[in-house]
Amino acid sequence: MASFTKISEDETPSIIVHSDHKIAKINDNIYGGFTEHMGRCIYGGIYDPGNPLSDEHGFRKDVIEAMKDLNVPVVRYPGGNFVATYHWLDGVGPKEQRPKRPELAWLGIESNEFGTDEFMKWCEVVGTDPYLCLNFGTGTLDEALGWLEYCNSTQDTYYANLRRKNGREEPYNVKYWALGNECWGPWQVAQLTKEDYAKKAYQWAKALKLLDPTITLILCGETGYSSWDYYVLKECVKWDVHGLGGDRTRSLIDMHSIHIYTADKEHLPNATAPRAAERAIQMTSALIDLARIENGVPETVPKQTICFDEWNVWDPIRAPGEQGAEEKYTLSDALAVSVFLNAFIRQAKDMGMANIAQSVNVISPLMTSKTGILKQTIWWPLLLFSKYMRGHSVAVNVKSPEYEGRTNPKWIRGTIETPFLDVCAARCEDGWVGLAVANVSEDRGFEVEVKGVAEGGVKVYTVGGESVHVVNTESEEKVGIKESEWDGKGKFTFGKHSFTLLRWKV
Ligand code: AHR
């Protein structure tokens, strides 16, 4: 949580960090990833058999290394829009017998060479938890139950035995399951009305939890501030012990998913756009409260958290999905990503998970070629956050001038502020405090009084570049991390259009 006081351009900005004032536990899962059968994310991204850079499973080793560096705790799969026509049975068993299918989300052909067992193996190698999304388009409840049984059952039953036959004795114990993806979207194969979705999601949730009451179920929301969100929460966040093995401290729905992509051609509307995501989190949290109040859900049932399972900078006109959505990210986009991540930390009390969309090649910080891997600008703040901004979010007070121009979306103005210094702070379990500061001003560095830092030995990590337009290419990495030290005395200068992480031990 951060309090913001707007000051004039000629006053001195200040940041006060209260490292002993913990606000909420930061769920590690906010650093989650997402791999969809789309463009070059799976094929040519995480899976590239025959390439000398791949291992014996056909997994790209450089991608695995990057995922490990990022310490990605959970990865969503197999879509996205792709999942609306995906039949998981097509992707298991002997590869030569797997059917090729027309793919209707991105208009390609799906070979099914990579499926559930390959994804589970990849997760194991990376050291991450799988998060599966169910087909709410052409899929059936029977099929969904079969998939859950295949992944999690230890019984002597058909799909559990099929898994054994396919070479895997132990269950995969997949914890996270989403009840469809963007079912509200007109681009969706078998789009649903909110009434139809809510009815279906509730009945599926009951059946899925009867089969495995230990799973975490994620409801398909929209942006977090729509009538769809209100309606499906109201209909599904109920106190109902059916399917919970009589457990009165849980509910069928554990999380509510929202998606927001931001982008603008101009730097400041672009870098401040993720403030809409922060407002969306606040609104979703209120809608969850409202559903619980209206439905009389007792406080013994933990509040449903937000699963922000698609977020990033993306302009689908600039980088169309059907062409693989290979966005080239600028420094401005890296600042936008920093503002997204700051928001997740500030709103930690409501955040159960967030998944950058996507992990490789498709609107991604990582781009593979046949010969190597490129780290785009947005990789660097993501890496710093994932490495150092864990533990608890702590209170921070910020005084800064504010950007007052056009915003995208327009409604940001009047609902949430857009300070030039966008700040959050966290205290890790090991006693290190992290202060993350995105200075989104294109032309002004700020000399800031920073209070609450330990004097001496402040580590400084800066992500910056010549201009907000710079991008990283295979031949030149213009944006990376610069490391230095600060003695913690006097004022600290946050350079124009830069992201800075200060770290000290309390
Ligand atoms: O991440 C790309 C696409 O964006 C996903 O498939 C879909 O869920 C969203 O519209």
From TrEMBL:
Give the species this sequence originates from.
Lentithecium fluviatile CBS 122367
Family statement drawn from the similarity comment of this UniProt entry: Belongs to the glycosyl hydrolase 51 family.
| Record keyword Hydrolase present | yes
Which reactions appear under catalytic activity for this entry?
Hydrolysis of terminal non-reducing alpha-L-arabinofuranoside residues in alpha-L-arabinosides
Q: Main EC class of this protein?
A: hydrolase
Pathway per the UniProt entry? Glycan metabolism; L-arabinan degradation
Q: Which UniProt keywords apply?
A: Carbohydrate metabolism, Glycosidase, Hydrolase
SMART domains given in the database record: Alpha-L-AF_C
Write the Enzyme Commission number(s) for this entry. Answer: 3.2.1.55
Gene Ontology molecular function terms on file: alpha-L-arabinofuranosidase activity
The Alpha-L-arabinofuranosidase C-terminal domain covers which part of the protein?
Answer: 309-498
Pfam families from the UniProt entry: Alpha-L-AF_C (PF06964), ASD1_dom (PF22848)
What the entry lists under SUPFAM superfamilies is as follows: (Trans)glycosidases, Glycosyl hydrolase domain
> In its UniProt record, which GO terms are filed under biological process?
arabinan catabolic process; L-arabinose metabolic process
Q: What does this protein do?
A: Alpha-L-arabinofuranosidase involved in the degradation of arabinoxylan, a major component of plant hemicellulose. Acts only on small linear 1,5-alpha-linked L-arabinofuranosyl oligosaccharides.
What is the protein name given in its UniProt record?
Answer: non-reducing end alpha-L-arabinofuranosidase
